[in-house]
Every structure is written in C-alpha cells, then in structure tokens.
Amino acid sequence: MKISALLTSAGINIGLCVLFLSLYSVLRKQPANVRVYFGRRISEEHSRLREAFILERFVPSTGWIVKALRYTEEEVLAAAGLDAVAFNRMLVFSIRIFSLAALLCVFGILPLHYYGQNIQHLRIPYEDLDIFTIGNVEKRSRWLWVHCLVLYIISGVACILLYLEFRHIARLRLLHLKRATPNPGQFTVLVRGIPKTKKESCSSAVDDFFTKYHASSYLFHQIVYKTGKVQKIMTGAKKACRKLKNFTDTTVDQSCKAITYRCCLCGASSNSFQLLPTDEVVPSRGKVDLDDSSLNIDNEECAAAFVFFKTRYGALVASDVLQTSNPTKWVTDLAPEPNDVYWSNIWLPYKQLWIRRIATLLGSIVFMLLFLAPVTFINGLSQLDQLQKRLPFLNGILKQPHHLVQLITGYLPSVILQIFLYTVAPIMMLFSTLEGPISHSERKRSACCKVLYFLIWNVFFVNVVSGTVLKQLDFFSSPKDIPVQLAKVIPGQASFFITYVLTSGWASLSSELMQLFGLIYNFIRKYVLRMKEDTEFVPSFPYHTEVPKVLLFGLLGFTCSVLAPLILPFLLVYFFLGYVVYRNQLLNVYRTRYDTGGLYWPIIHNTVIFSLVLTQIICLGVFGLKVSPVAAGFTIPLIIFTLLFNQYCRTRLLPLFSTFPAQNLIDMDREDELSGRMEHIHHGLHTAYCQFPESEDIQLEEIRTVGNDEDGGGCSSGGSNGKETLQEQQQPRRDLSHPTLKGLPVSRLQTAVRCVTFLIRLQKRGLS
C-alpha cells in the first residue's frame, strides 16, 4: 500500500470523527435526546435539562471533554462500579506504554527503517509502506541491536506498569468487598445437582442436608423453580386449577347473553365466548380429576436452591468444599448478586452443563472457520497488486483512476471487515447464554473471552496467513518455522492494521459517542410511533465488545511497535480519544445493574502477557532472518523473564480474583455482630432473591351474583352501536371490580380489556 492510500483512509476517518464529534456536542444539548445521552443520570440522579430555547444548544463545543476528564477515579467507582475502573485503567496502561513506545520507535527505529537500504527514495506520498518497516533493513545490519534494546525497554516497562495496575485493581477489589451496603451474595450459596426422591421434595432434602452437615452456620433456603415463558403459563394455570378445586360456593351471572363476533378472515359468526349455565358447569367439573399429580406444583421444583448462612465465612466454606463423594451432586458456588442472577439458566440440570459447553465450543470454532472466507477476500482488496499476478482479470480495476484505487485498497477493506464484525458479538453472546451461566456478568464475561479469541484469530492471524497465501503458498509447509513466517509477513500487513485502527478505532469511537442506534430508536419511538419515553430502560456498558476491541489494538501495537512503528501514532490517538469517550459514556449514558468486582482484569492481564510473548517470538524470528545472532540470543532470556513474571502475578495477585480472603470476611462478620447489624442483614435475606417479583398467587374468592340487568348494560360490549368515542373508553370505570383478581395488576388488565374492546368495535364498524 502506498502512503497516499493510507492518507486517503486517514482523511476520510478524520473527517467522520470531526463530523460525529461536532454533531454529538450539539445533539447532547437538545432536550429531546436527554434519554439517549444522559440515560444513567436521568434514571439515578433524576436530573433534567432545560427546555428553554438557548442559542448555545446549537453551537458545537468541547465542554463535555472537560467534564469527562474532571471526574476522579473515586467518582467513577461510585457511579459505574469497579468494572468501569478496571476498563479505565486498561486505557491508562495503554496510553502510558504506547506513549513510551511511540517516543522510542518513531524517533529511534523509524529512521533506521527508512534509510535501511541504499536506494533512491521517492516523495513521501508515493513511497510504499514497506519502506517504513523492518523489511527494509539489510541483513547483518549493525543497527539491529537498537531494535533489541527497544524491545527490552518496552517489555520491562510494560511488566512494571502491568504489575502496578494489577495490584491497584486487587486493592480496589478488597475495598469493594468491604463496601458499606452488605451484599446478600456474600451470605448465599447456590446449590445445584440436588438429588430428587419420590419420598420427599427438594425443599425438604435441602433443609435436611444443610441442617445435618452445616448446622452451625445454616440459616434457611429458597428453592428455585423452572422458568420460561411456556413454563410460567403452565405454572399459572396449574395454580389456578388447584385454587379452583376448593372453589364450591360460587354462582355465575346468567343475565349476560352470548356474545357473537365475526371472524376477521372469513366473516363467519362464532359464539365460542358464551357463558355456560351453572348447572352445566357443576356436573362437568366432577369429571375433571384435579387431584392429578400433574397439577402438583412441587413437580416444578428444579434441582437448585439458594441456601443462606448466618455469616459470610460460613457461606464461603460451604461454597469451597466438596459436599459429597459424588462431585456432580450438591454442587455449591457463591451466589451472584440479586440483580445479577440469570434466572433462565439456574434451573438447568447440572449434568447437562458440560455437554452445553462442548457444543458451544464447537459452534464457536465452526463460526470462526466460516469467517475465513470474508477475511481472506477483504485482505485481498488491500493487496490488489498481488492478486493481479494470479487473477489477470483484475487489470481493469487497477487501470481505474488513481483516487479510486486508493479508496479500494486503503479504506474499503477495513470498512467491509467492520461490517462483518458487527455480527460477532450477538452470536458469541448467544453461545455464552447456551453454556448455562448463572449470572448476567458471567455470561457477558464469557462472551468477552469468545469475542477476544475471535478477533485475535480472524483480524490478526487470519489476515497474516491470508496475506502470506496471496504471496506464497507454503505457509503451512513447515510448522516449525511459524515464527520465521510471521516475521516475514507481519511487517507487510502493517498497512492493513493501520487502516483497521483508523476505521474500527477512530470511526467506531465517534459512532459510540453519537449513539446512532439509540438516537434512531428514540426518534422513531417519540415522533413516529408517538409513544411515551421508556424511563426504565437504560442500557448497560457492552464490556463484551469494547474490552476485546481495546485489547486487540494493544496486540497490534505491541507486535508492530518494533517491526512497523508507523502504527503507533494512530494507536495513541485512539487510546487518548477512547479514554475521554468511554469515561463520558460510563458516567452519563450507561447504567450499572451488576458488577463483577473487577474480574475483567485477569482477562486484560493474560492478553497483555500473550501480546508481549508473541511480540518477542516474532522479533526472535526477525533477528534470525536478518542474521543477527546477538540480538536473537538476547531475546530468548526476555521471553523467559516475561513468563516468570506472569507466573509471579498468578501466584501473588490472581487468587484474590477467584475467591475472597477468609480474614476479611471474618472481620466483617465480627464487626456486624458487634454493631447489631447482623440481625437486620438476616432479615433482608428473606426478600433478596425473588424469582417472581411481579407475580403473586391468584386469590380465588366467592363470586357474588350480579343482578339481572334488563337493559343489557352488563354486556353492552356485545351490542354496541359504535357511538362511543375513544375518550369515553379510556375513562376509568369506578364500578369495575373483580373479586378473583386481587392478586393481579387490575389496572393493566383494565387497560388491556379496553384496548381489545376498542379494536373489536373498529372491526365491526368496518364490516357493517
């Protein structure tokens, strides 16, 4: 790729960024968009924007940048949680390490690459990007020791910064554990794989087991029931049947006549909705066996339960130990926070989970392999000169105007790849859901890992392999030489990686700031559908898409820093812009419903270590190709040192992210007991985990006989003359009551009945 094609791509993306940032600074000031750009603040702080006309609202400004940078880390922690702080620290780490790398590589290594060979240079815009890579350095060059020294400096500083950030997040995690508001999840254990017997229910089995083996700390338990749309309907019907079994002293209003409606399709009449007389209902009721075991609600109990303990330490011990000699029975784990529970997966049989994990793993691998075709095609667009040698019919494209060729090779490939990548996150989230996670945060964290592996494989390795295949077909001929092959082709792929940073980095950040989908949805809802604003729905931050994206850019930065340092200035702009944009979004747009306590940081740490080791292996191959034994020899100890550092971090800091220290939990329990708060905490556990928060049991009572209404007022809906207006229908009827619906949301049912009645009357008007 020529420098001119790179400048074309950079110019387009810079123009889009400036346009989107300017539009955002104007749109965020409009009162109609307050739910889009200030969703978290509106929902949590109940703040409002001024409705008056102010000229300043229509002038682009940079005040939002100053406000985003003004917040301290403590304010971000209080507003968005520890996960947001971990994400923010990842950006800070990237800014620090790549600022140093840009300073060393752009001013120290880039001139060595440009003057690496004795050739006649063209003007900069017409130079090829390969001139600025290590591929332009001659073999046995006496300047390769500079590359090795810079590699040592970047790796050493990265390890130091990574350890400091790891320790900082671990300290914040311990403070997060000691927060003022008690977390019910610290007192609760989720038990799965409860053995079922015909003699006793699951509830009795749980109570007997924990009373016998955890008598000193066991408090009480709560059984989990099967959930799902179909299951909820079946459970509600069975509950109603059980209530109806004892329902004897009832009479039904006989004054209403049968209501006849016309079919909307064929026009035929139907009287299916008539009331049967009481003497017909009573005999038929005797034919129905309501004592059938299928109506027993106990059958809807699943082999899972929440078990509550008196102390945090008791819950921790119960969750860590193996309960029985059969590891698949009485499986215990610390329960997630109440807002984090994913109820749809808790009732899944525990023995089924390993099959689900294998199936989703295979599905993810197949999806990654299917993505090879579009990635190879996209990479071919950036190397039309190589494709021309094998596909002569492309000569016509290369004969097009110069600016069109620059657009095709410099901007179009990364745009097409970005469009394809939009399908990855939803599919990986579906795979993570099918695995059977017990919490929303676990599901999102699993999707984050899958998206990360997908991006590293398809955007990095597949692009490298496809670029090699276009030039030579022997990449897989010698697997032992993979480091050498990577060293050959990665400098040549730097052009595609730079355009990818411009398109997927700069442009996607401005799109994230604009909230295009939310803006369009808000406009359609308010001005097209004329619906009220949904004040309850505020999105949560998409960690499963943004964390892998930032880590992928970090991988590109590390691997290209020494080999093709021209990418570093573009990456620095992305990280600086991302630091401002993401802080603004976390503080204003997204609401934190649940928090993992910084569990994303081990993913970040492992990915950075992988990037460092991969960079060192590739540099080892490069030094071997350039016949520099001294530089290659010094690189091997660096790889060993990085792996030892990783092992130290895993031993020293990683255990703090897998469990909680018993010392801290015991101190918190003693403090709560001395202050008298423990009894209040135990009382709150009874209502902490509510599986059906919006439903209550249907209370069936005696139906009173409604007096005969000669004028048919009780059934006026059947003989309506269509003269009622919508305003009259929307007026509440104070005499409308139903004694069997005390446990249900009567107001919603009334609204639904009015809407259905109005639609039926409109239909009758059209047919009459």
With strands numbered from the N-terminus, the spatial order across the biggest sheet is 2-5-1-6
Helix and strand composition category: mainly alpha
Amount of helix: 55-70%
Count of individual beta strands: 6
Number of domains: 2
Spatial extent as radius of gyration: 33 Å
User: Taking all residues together, what is the mean pLDDT?
Assistant: 77
Shape: globular
Counting DSSP H or I runs of 4 or more residues, the number of helices is 31
Task: Estimate the strand proportion.
Answer: under 5%
Main beta sheet strand tally, sense and closure: 4 strands, antiparallel
Stretches with pLDDT under 50, minimum 5 residues: 248-259, 261-299, 469-477, 695-744
Ends: how far apart?
72 Å
Domain CSC1/OSCA1-like N-terminal transmembrane: 5-164
InterPro entries: Csc1-like, CSC1/OSCA1-like_7TM, CSC1/OSCA1-like_cyt, CSC1/OSCA1-like_N
Transmembrane segments: 6-27, 97-116, 143-164, 358-378, 411-431, 451-470, 550-579, 599-623, 630-648
GO molecular function: calcium-activated cation channel activity
